[in-house]
Design goal:
Its EC number is 1.1.1.47. By secondary structure, the protein is an alpha/beta fold. It has helices spanning 15-26, 39-51, 66-80, 104-126, 142-145, 152-172, 191-194, 200-204, 216-227; strands at 6-9, 30-35, 56-60, 85-88, 134-138, 178-184, 238-241. It is globular and about 50 Å long. The chain starts with 5 loop residues before the first strand and ends with a strand. The structure holds NADP nicotinamide-adenine-dinucleotide phosphate (NAP).
Length: 245
């Protein structure tokens, strides 16, 4: 067990993050997952990882809270004594809104989680990741599409994630750490209903060239590939997982 690499997945209790945790456990990683408030789902995902042979630890930690981020990395150090890779998956859309009707509070909440929290996790990870380590940021196709009429505030936060990924990849290369992003399109998770649009996928399916939404496991496969040595010469990449959207 001691030679298993350790992966930290933010927002790993549900959705894409949970799919990453489960797949990583099956591929030989030990896993730490954070969650915001849904302890039951996080415990369920951690139990699934353990059933697949991994050591797993679920931590309640708001990624937008710098003290919680510091405490998370301290717990990883204390429990595992190493960290080999980070998946910055935790993300929120905030409510549906045009930019004109959006509020400062929406922008602040979404950017605190999706950008400031992600940057804080990158900083903390870079302090401990060994050569050969990797970071994968879960961005969104919204960064390129723009989120018009739904959530420009969210799309703009993911644009920041894309730019951070490109810049950080260049900085981290010197220490042998690769940094990439996955840009999911419309993936079947609870995110859409949480934003007040439970029918969003069926409404937008006509905009997807492959004519279907994606599964969380399909996004997780791309994340696991970018984490793996199979992607050893890939850094600064933004990989759409979007059925062509
Ligand atoms: P989801 O089903 O809503 O799950 C979100 C996960 O993130 C949950 O585990 C949640 O914890 C956690 N989380 C939320 N805010 C957090 C915070 N402040 N601190 C720590 N954890 C937090 O979302 P998803 O669809 O899997 O999305 C995952 C990522 O993919 C996000 O970055 C999202 O922007 C991106 N994405 C999703 C889609 C899509 O179509 N679904 C498309 C493009 C990009 P709790 O369980 O405790 O609430």
């Amino acid at each position: 067990m001691a030679d298993r690499k350790v992966l930290l997945v933010t927002g790993g209790g549900r959705g894409i993050g949970a799919a990453v945790v489960r797949l990583a456990a099956a591929r030989g990683w030990d896993v730490v997952l954070t969650y915001a408030g849904n302890a039951a789902r996080a415990a369920e995902t951690a139990a699934a990882a353990e059933a697949a042979g991994a050591r797993a630890l679920a931590i309640q930690a708001d990624v937008g809270d710098p003290q919680a981020v510091a405490a998370t990395f301290a717990q990883v150090r204390d429990r595992f004594g190493r960290l080999d890779a980070l998946v910055n998956n935790a993300g929120i859309t905030g409510p549906t809104s045009t930019l004109r009707e959006s509020t400062d509070a929406m922008w602040e909440t979404v950017f605190r989680t999706n950008v400031f929290g992600l940057a804080a996790c990158c900083r903390a990870a870079l302090a401990v990741l060994p050569p050969g380590g990797a970071i994968v940021n879960v961005s969104s196709r919204a960064a390129a599409i723009g989120g018009a009429g739904e959530w420009v505030h969210y799309a703009a936060s993911k644009g920041a994630v894309d730019t951070l990924t490109i810049g950080l990849a260049k900085e981290a290369a010197a220490q042998g750490v690769r940094v990439n992003a996955v840009n999911p399109g419309l993936i079947e998770t609870e995110l859409h209903a949480a934003a007040g649009m439970p029918d969003r996928l069926s409404r937008l399916v006509g905009s997807i060239p492959m004519a279907r939404g994606g599964q969380p496991e399909e996004a997780a496969e791309a994340v696991l590939w970018l984490l793996s040595d199979a992607a050893s010469y890939v850094t600064g990449a933004l990989l759409p997982v979007s059925g062509g959207r």
